[in-house]
């Protein structure tokens, strides 16, 4: 496939990846905000996740708006630090270039309840992003970064991200999840600049 047709193929499909860890024991953890947001997006599409034949991942295929581009929602069935393999397999299967990949993930350096949307950048110690960068061979994909804040006192960072939201946070969490889902829709429909103006509070 030449570069022109490859670009044309990729521009029609977006791959939206929710980063997290599989299974009920991880479901409520701060590290799993990506899964929660893809659940919300799948609900908006009106479709359940299904196992994908070519990757260790569950996917939903559809459109987030009538006449909008095709979107593949995905979440890996392996652990966070293995996210890159399934993402690369899905990107290859659907012929999606990195600039049409969106990763939704937790972010320690942003206050809980806030979002930052950007293209490219480092992994900032985030194992899911690190794995994606390694497998895709580039960090030039979009990130919807959902703030979880820093751990209180001397709590270990790993313990903090792999623990449940506080009682107060759980009341606010649905709003953050909904906003992050809105940001993904905006990114795909309106582009980065408008989305940043709207959501980078």
UniProtKB/TrEMBL annotation:
Subcellular location field: Cytoplasm
EC number, UniProt record: 3.1.1.29
List of residues binding tRNA: 26, 79, 81, 127
GO molecular function: hydrolase activity
Pfam family, one: Pept_tRNA_hydro
Entry keyword set: Cytoplasm, Hydrolase, RNA-binding, tRNA-binding
Primary residence: cytoplasm
Active-site residues per Swiss-Prot or TrEMBL entry: 31 (proton acceptor)
Residues carrying the site annotation Discriminates between blocked and unblocked aminoacyl-tRNA: 21
Reaction(s) catalysed by this chain's protein: an N-acyl-L-alpha-aminoacyl-tRNA + H2O = an N-acyl-L-amino acid + a tRNA + H(+)
Record site feature (Stabilizes the basic form of H active site to accept a proton), residues: 106
Gene3D superfamilies xref list: Peptidyl-tRNA hydrolase
Assembly notes: Monomer.
Family named by the database record: Belongs to the PTH family.
Described function: Hydrolyzes ribosome-free peptidyl-tRNAs (with 1 or more amino acids incorporated), which drop off the ribosome during protein synthesis, or as a result of ribosome stalling.
Protein name: Peptidyl-tRNA hydrolase
Upper taxonomic lineage: Bacteria, Bacillati, Actinomycetota, Actinomycetes, Propionibacteriales
Gene: spoV
